[in-house]
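User: My collaborator sent over this chain with a note saying "see what the structure looks like." That's all I know about it. Can you take a look?
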Amino acid sequence: MPHLPKIRPEALSAVVALFIVVALNGTLWSKLYAVTSPDTFTDWAFLGSFFLFQVATYFFLLRALSLPYVLKIVAALMVIIAAAASYFMGEYGAVIDINMIRNVFQTDSAEAGDLTTWAAVAWVGGLGVAPALAIALVRIEWPAWKPLLGANLRGCALVFALVVANLAAFSNDYFSVLREQQAIVFTSTPANVVIAGGKLAVRSARHYSGPLTPIGLDAQRDLRPAGATRPLVTILVIGETARAENFSLFGYKRDTNPGLKSIPDLIAFPQVSSCGTDTGASVPCMFSGLGHARYSLRAGQRNENLLDLVHRTGLDVTWMENQGGCKGVCARIPTVTLTQSADPRFCADGECHDEILLEGLEQRIAAMTNGGVIVLHMMGSHGPAYFKRVPAAFARFKPVCETAQFSRCTTEEIVNAYDNTIVYSDHVLSSLVALLRRTSGSGADTMMLYVSDHGESLGENGVYLHAMPYMIAPKQQTHVPMVMWLSPGARNSLQVGNDCLADLARAKSFSHDNLFHTVLGLHRIRTSVYDAGLDILNPCRDHRPM
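Assistant: Without extra context I'll predict from the sequence alone. Here is the result:
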């Protein structure tokens, strides 16, 4: 086989930089074009300037690392990373930031399998792996070390001066676009992946592994409240990827909630916002008691959470998992993992439908003689393979998208598949209420509080799925459904009335911040970390008319 011709390192750097910007940044250019809507020479000049800036930036990085055994590795990795990121940005409208990178590392095998479509393999293989192999095979004509370092230094200085001059010439345009359209910052790849990955690495290095800070050490439970003769069992249902916009309870045009709408004493909360746009942020945040404004990953790791506090007061606490994990929230309490169950009624291909969460629940409630909390973590509407989340009997809306490759489906098919997951979740929740009604005749009062961890985008403005940075996330990703049901015995014991709660739910806005304090209030746990203003039931206490 004849030797391939040699090229100089600066030539390889230029070719790779140009390839990345032209072939692997389609999302960046489409968004920038839509924002600028160029129709004048100045507009087109700015686009040209932005193109030059992108090429120069990646060329600068490669030029700085133009060293034997280094340049090829860096260039190949940049191309593969950019190819993978460009596919997911283009296919799902994904935004790559630190939360998205964290989600990648937390993805389980089932979710990874859903995302690994033939289109993804072909795209990454053709535009990532194949060019990386070409980079590995090319022969580079390396000068001696001293001339090489001098040439690298001069090349970087020249490119840096060019970038500065370019930015200065169009500074107003850059500041205007990037200030008003922050999402564009997250679409330049592989810079977005490298920057987000670097931030995640720094945070991971600072991961708190010391002793946990207890919360609510002064907590005491009122064991003999007036009117209470039986223990209270609270069922907290944490939904997955359900957005309020697609609940008919809140005005959606399709009847996605036939079961819940038939429950006369159900309380529906139409205005609830999530703590984050992905499970890894929202679930720890809602149980932390810190609230959206104060919560951080490190603070969540450093402190105990709601379940630790409740368990310490003597109440039974159990987490039942049918998803990808509790994100550390259930680390110190009994946990039942159902995702690998072999029950053929609910499970197939390594995944179980959410009805499995109800199996044996009556017996668990009966065994909680002191009362307590059971958390049901649903699979819910987890995407992109919505069709897998729904038993055939609940596929009400057709045709459905039966692939995780959204580009092969129409918007109608994607929405149909998603809405079917809401219909099925409605069935699970209404079945849960029926189950709790049956148990209300036994030894415990019961109540259910359901809230989704975050919402979902279904193609609005070209965006799908979730996990966008909160500051720019569309409302579909942060506006979540929440419903509550209390047994008659629980309402009487807690001295609250449904009419008051229903009026309150319609009149006020709520968020994940309310969950921590509401649970403490439900179980009459007195502690300095309890905020009555965030306890949903507190304004309706002593309003007992049914």
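A starting point for your reply to your collaborator: The chain has a mean pLDDT of 88.
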